[in-house]
Amino acid sequence: MTYRREAIACVCNIAGDLLAGIFSSDAEVIAAAADYLRAYAIDCLFTSIFFCYTGYYNGIGQTRFVMLQGIGGAFGVRVPVSYLISRTANATLFHIGLATPLSSIVQLLLCLGFMVHLKRKKPEQTVQ
Fold first, then answer.
1. Cα torsion through 62, 64, 69, 75, rounded to 10
2. I want to staple 12 with a disulfide (CB 3.0 to 4.6 A). Which of 19, 37, 39, 95 is the partner?
3. In sequence order, what DSSP letters do the residues of 28-64 get, joined into one string?
4. Cβ pair 41, 77 in contact under 8 A
5. How many whole angstroms separate alpha carbon 38 and alpha carbon 93?
6. Is 88 helix (H, G, I), strand (E, B) or coil?
7. Minimal CA–CA distance to 45: which of 1, 111, 102, 95?
8. Would you say the C-alpha torsion 30, 33, 38, 41 has a positive or negative sign?
9. What is this structure's pTM?
10. Could you say which DSSP state residue 1 is in?
11. Dihedrals phi, psi of 43, to nearest 5 degrees
12. Do residues 44 and 16 lie in contact, with contact meaning Cβ atoms separated by under 8 Å?
């Protein structure tokens, strides 16, 4: 079994400044990018899980749910939460970046809830 998501999370969390240093030599930019990558590291743990669910749902023909949970996660959680956090005093890119794992958690909960919904339906009704 591979542990890519954990590896990416660790690299982003521990060596975010090295990754950011590839793209900029400005110390402030590197520090801010490393700060954001720490929030992104959290998201790596959740995204890989709900991507498996969305792949499954696409495979069984539940594409409408996949589209709606993706749009809901982006425009219902990620964008408004990022905006609201950016308006708070002393908001950093880490704080703003936390909107991404929050969105992933909401999307994962939607996927789990949809799985429960599908299990309650008759098997022949799950494929469109």
1. 160
2. 37
3. HHHHHHHHHHHHHHHHHHHHHHHHHHHHHHHHTT-HH
4. no
5. 9
6. coil
7. 102
8. negative
9. 0.79
10. -
11. -65, -35
12. no
User: 């429960």: which residue's tokens?
Assistant: 116
* Maximum C-alpha span of the chain: 58
pLDDT by residue for the chain (128 residues), tens digit each?
456 666 766 766 667 777 777 887 888 888 888 888 888 888 888 888 888 999 999 999 999 999 999 999 999 999 999 999 999 999 999 999 999 999 999 999 999 999 999 998 866 555 55
Q: Where are the alpha helices (DSSP H) in 72-123?
A: 79-86, 93-97, 99-120
Token pair 């589209």 in the structure block, residue: 67
Q: Helix axis angle, 99-120 relative to 63-71, nearest 10°? A: 150
Rounded (5°) CA angle 24-33-17: 70
C-alpha dist (Å) from residue 7 to 3, 13, 27, 86, 120: 6, 10, 25, 29, 36
